[in-house]
Structure formats: C-alpha cells, structure tokens
TrEMBL record:
UniProtKB keywords: Signal
Superkingdom, taxonomy of origin: Bacteria
Signal peptide: 1-18
Annotated source species: Falsiroseomonas bella
Protein name per the record: Uncharacterized protein
Length: 216
C-alpha cells in the first residue's frame, strides 16, 4: 500500500534534520581518549607530530618514561586506525598504511598487546595509564592495563612500558605519517586543509577534555 503524499511530505523535514545532524557530528577521532589529547581543533595531525617526535630516536628516549611511552603508543594506535577507516585519510599512501601496520605489530609485541585487541580499547587503556603514571599512581595505571587487552597486564605491562626496547619501525612509520600529512596539506588533498570540523573544540593536551571557553 502506497503512503499518502502528505505523509511523505511531513516526514521530509525529519529526514533532512537527521541528515544535517549526522553531517555536523565531529570527526570520529576528534573525540580523543583522556591522556592522549592534543591542544588542537584537528587532533589527528597534531598527535602524529607529537608521536613522531617521541619515536624519533627509535624509542630510546622513552626508556624509563612509561607515561610518555603509553601516550605515544596510544596516539599511534588511533592514528593507524584513523588512516585505515576514515575516508578523510584516503589519500594517504598505501606504503604509509603498510608501515603503520608493521609498526603496530612491533609496539604491540614490545608491551604485550594481542594483535586481536581493538585499537580503541587499547588507546583508551593507554591514555588512562599515561594519566595515572604522570600522577605516580601505579595502582590505577595497573588497573587500566587489564589482561583483556594487555598480556599479562597490570604491573608487568607498566614494566614493559618503562623499557619498551628499540622501536625502529615505530620511528619509520610515525615519520612517514607526519610527512604524508604535510604532503596532503601542501597539495590540498582530502581532509587536512579542506575537512576541518568548524565546530570541533580545542582539547586539553593531557586530558583530552574541551578547553573552557572554546565553542562547538
């Protein structure tokens, strides 16, 4: 049975409002987990730059700094997933995506994250652990690094973050990702210059919370 024309007309504004609401949603990875945020309305490029700096010596400077290691690895977990899933980053080269996949295997093996662990789950846990470790709260950090995503989890996971060992692939992949974002900006490709969300808030560089006074 066909719907009356007046009913279809009545439903049209509802559909348009729903479409507009969906278009105005902030980018998927603009909602950065606490502990991984960067003070930027467009956090993914900023996270890439910060993580590339952290890995610039192949992870050597992260030894003895588990909070910083958790933050850098958590950021790159999000970046790797953003490049894989978000259409905004479709112009990123296949070589960069491949290097990130290899690097993820490297850092996951270094700190005991199963390959099957969901990136979002890993990133949230690492962000929480980073915040706790900055406050010298090892008990809370150990609780964040639960065995569900870290093997064996807890205190041993903190010890691995404190001594992640050489991470040469993380250095290569994060530098490639940084350079790829810069290339996209120069060439005005895709999301970097043309897809900034005008309503996204600026984020606190540590907690990921919206900075007071900024507007959505």
């Amino acid at each position: 049975m066909r719907r009356p024309a007046f009913l279809m007309i009545a439903l049209l504004p509802v559909a348009l409002l729903a479409a507009c609401a969906e278009m105005r949603q902030p980018p998927e990875f603009a909602r950065i987990p606490p502990g991984l945020g960067v003070a930027s309305a467009d956090p993914v490029p900023a996270m890439i730059a910060e993580a590339a700096a952290a890995f610039s010596d192949g992870g050597a400077s992260l030894n003895g700094r588990p909070a910083e290691a958790a933050r850098a690895i958590g950021q790159m977990e999000l970046v790797a997933e953003a490049f894989r899933r978000n259409p905004r980053w479709a112009p990123v080269s296949a070589a960069t995506v491949t290097e990130l996949r290899t690097a993820r295997t490297e850092w996951r093996q270094a700190i005991g994250i199963p390959e099957t662990a969901a990136p979002e789950t890993v990133a949230v846990a690492l962000g929480q652990a980073s915040l706790a470790l900055r406050e010298n709260d090892t008990q809370r950090a150990a609780a964040a690094l639960a065995p569900a995503a870290f093997m064996p989890g807890g205190a041993p996971a903190i010890a691995r973050l404190a001594a992640p060992g050489p991470l040469p692939q993380a250095r290569i992949a994060s530098a490639l990702a940084r350079d790829e974002v810069a290339r996209m900006a120069r060439m005005q490709l895709g999301g970097v210059t043309g897809a900034l969300d005008p309503d996204a808030p600026f984020l606190n560089s540590l907690t990921g919370a919206q900075i007071p006074g900024t507007m959505r």
